[in-house]
Amino acid sequence: MSEVYAARRARLHDQCTAAGSAAALVSRPANVRYLCGAVPPGAVLLLGPVQDVLVAAEVPSAPPLPSAPPRAEEPRLLVLPGAEGDPAAAAADLAAADGAESLAVEEHDLTVARHRALGAAAPRIRLADLGRAVEQLRIVKDDEEISCMRIAGELADQALGELLESILVGRTERHLALELERRLVDHGADGPAFPTVVAAGPNAGRPGHLPTDRRVEEGDFLTIRLGADYRGYRCQVGRTFVVGPSPADWQVELYDVVFAAQRAGREALLPGRACRDVDRVTRQVLDAAGYGDALEPRTGHGVGLEIDEDPRLSPSAMGKLDACVPVTVEPGVHLPGRGGVRIDDTLVVRPEADGGPELLTITTKELLAL
């Protein structure tokens, strides 16, 4: 993998040089990991005019970090003595010492205080904005990245499937969420990809719901959204079920509409398709059924080292989909006081010649009565 990381850094070097910056400072944790692999917490990467340096603060009680890289193409590792030093400020000072006249930084990741600290550490360097250059490089995934996401999807499906075989009535949303996260880790995930959502009854389908002590009752809609983190890569799945012997007519009707919308969005995931068109075809189904006022601002987003990445699938989204881009399609409708439905999948954009979108989360989307 070291060659892969070296190639990624070389691409970023080329972009910075073309933009007029001989050095760049990458501070966003997911971006540092993308360019270097697993790194110490809080580490930053300096792409310098002379050398690339991974700067990390010393972590108390942690095993010592190697002072030199195992291969020449990897960045040199610099560990600051003590836990109080700011790796970003130290990196800016290194860039100045190597003769850099400008330093491109990730302004969207820096606080005002940290940006000022960089200027104080290297007052003769002009600070420029790197923008979201690394995030743009991250959009299209390679085979190894997709393989990790595929495993993350399998782990999430497995944890969800096991939970559905257990008794649910009488258990709280919070208890079920904790059990799902434990199952993820038991099966080999590094942890949950995001805080697990369990929403029952009137909470079902509610966007951004956090699990409460509300107990699951017969007749409830039950929405579960979870994701696994495997080797840094994330994948999410969301399903809605009915608790009890059979769903009510209104539950079947609402579920069928959301399922149809989600299917329309999935089928639109083809290379060259405008991102806003994927949102549009998903939204049209729900709007035609009278649920336009209940729609969320977007129907999906990219996923990878972070659970929410570019591209965005929204009415105002710019750009088109590329092959090998993992995205979610996750429409939902919440009816206040009654509950609602969400259906989430993670898919990889593939051309029709290769079979179309690759589904990474395969838990059934049939409306199950549990």
Automatic annotation (TrEMBL):
Domain of life per record: Bacteria
Peptidase M24 domain ranges (all copies): 148-350
InterPro entries: Creatin/AminoP/Spt16_N (IPR029149), Creatinase/aminopeptidase-like (IPR036005), Creatinase_N (IPR000587), Pept_M24 (IPR000994), Peptidase_M24B (IPR050659)
UniProt keyword annotations, A-Z: Aminopeptidase, Hydrolase, Protease
Coiled coil: none
Molecular function terms from GO: aminopeptidase activity
Signal peptide from the UniProt entry: none
UniProt-listed Pfam families: Creatinase_N, Peptidase_M24
Domain Creatinase N-terminal residue range list: 8-140
Name this polypeptide is given: Xaa-Pro aminopeptidase
The organism's taxonomic lineage, starting at the top: Bacteria, Bacillati, Actinomycetota, Actinomycetes, Kitasatosporales
